[in-house]
Amino acid sequence: MYRRLDPRAGLDRFGKPRPHRNSIPGLSSPYQVAIPTKPSRLPSRNSRVIKTQWRGLGDTQRQAQEFISGPSLGTMAKFMTFNRIQSRVVTGLLTGHNTQRRLLYLLGLLDSPLCRKCGVGEETSAHILCECEALASLRHAYLACFVLGPEDIRCLGLGDIWNCSKVAGLP
Q: Has residue 132 been placed in a domain?
């Protein structure tokens, strides 16, 4: 039978000394792990790095930078409450990686990039969210304005963008 040992004694169930929990196998001294003294400062450091990376994207991801002001914990928390369809639609609208007619035209899958709602301008996220005359009444009802600019889209909540796109029947 095994002897019952006191776990605070530093011995395992066979009576051998237990290694320090922060030790590296093969070394006699325990390995010291740096633990931040103020864990509340950790997210601010990471967010600074992320914001610097966001600003450093340069000419890439123009549409995403046009509609998204930058990383935000509140926006991320709201986004995490979305289901897969909601997150796909909102992400597609804000980044331009979706099934709108201009992208499909550029890929050679459609003959015309014109908007399926108004038939006037190229169907892009900027056109749908800001300019399309056929969606002006929906924008007014759900986004509180007939015509919006990219800077106005940055101030909107993700839920508002989702509700407007859902009623408009956007993919």
A: yes
Measure the CA–CA gap between 157 and 106, rounded to whole angstroms: 30
Distance CA 130, CA 126 (A): 5
Q: Which is nearest to 125 in space by CA: 84, 155, 83, 168?
A: 168
148 vs 133: CA distance, rounded Å: 11
Number of separate domains in the chain? 1
pLDDT digit string (tens) for 42-89? 455 566 776 666 666 666 566 677 787 777 777 888 888 999 999 899
For residue 14, being part of any structural domain is answered with: no
Within a domain: residue 36? no
